[in-house]
Amino acid sequence: MTETETRNHHADKQQIGGAMAETSSVEDVFDDTYTEKEGPKPPRMLVWRNIMLMTLLHLGALYGLTLVPSASVLTLAWTAVCYLISALGVTAGAHRLWSHRSYKASFPLRVFLALGNSMAFQNDIYEWARDHRVHHKYSETDADPHNATRGFFFAHVGWLMVRKHPDVVEKGKKLELTDLKADKVVMFQRRHYKMSVVILCFFVPMLVPWYFWGESLGVAYFVPGLLRYAVMLNATWLVNSAAHIWGNRPYDKSINPRENPLVAFSAIGEGFHNYHHTFPFDYATSEFGVKLNLTTAFIDLMCFMGLAKDPKRVSKEIINARIQRTGEGSNKSG
């Protein structure tokens, strides 16, 4: 980051300081004081268990794709429902609620989102939120768990196939995570995570169509089970990879995250990434509300029903000022 960009970053902190301070003790705000260690990088240590499991999962998903024509309409509809529930467990839950505290959720809603998060099987909420805060605080550096400057494959899935860089581990241990530890739903899910994943990611998607409308166990396991899970994983990974590489940067041209509508569609609203990294505490993660953003529509519905409240938003004045000062002058993604 250049000296000018650093000054811009500090100016932004001052400009939105009130909202930022209310959000999360700036644990998800970029730290421009961090510098990577000089000298050779530590050797990559492959995690063969993860490599084998990812390979088997995607082979199973490809087989599931061949079974889609033989699946009943009800099974395909159930697959879409499972996809949406698991996606919301990540986007509205682990991401916008627990990582960024961009709104407040009632106990029943937190339980629903925790169940959806277990169905998504992307690490428990505590670990997911911790790593995501590290990602924002040290974006595109050695301390970023899925540093996109190491290439598309690493940012997409490769980071799960190797041991974390020592700086990722070190910085993650230093984060203030008392809010997560104080949330009984988060800690209950963490204690029972493995069992919840077995039940919610695999058994429930498979057994519901088999029991209620007579779908074969094979189709039920490979379509709403493995295929749905693999597609959901890749949709989430595209936020880390594609949305950090391809797209425009109307809000801050000095950072890599981009506005990518295709990623926004597949990840139900998480592809407006230049905006999100510029204003991480905004519950909508986008300037454009519910447009290509089912997660924002869901949170709005929960607020209307009284199950959520206090969604944080950036004012139009601050957005326009930021666009004028640090945007690249490209057309807005919305």
Overview in brief:
This protein is mostly helical and 334 residues long. The chain has helices spanning 3-15, 17-24, 48-67, 73-99, 107-120, 125-137, 152-156, 166-174, 178-182, 184-191, 193-213, 217-240, 261-266, 273-278, 294-304, 316-326, and strands spanning 104-105, 308-309. The longest helix is centred in the N-terminal third of the chain and has 27 residues, at 73-99.
Task: Please provide a written account of the structure.
By secondary structure, this protein is mainly α. The protein has a domain at 42-247. It is built from 16 helices and two strands. Helix 4 runs antiparallel to helix 11 (193-213) and helix 11 crosses helix 12. The two termini are 28 Å apart. Residues 1-24 have low confidence and may be disordered.
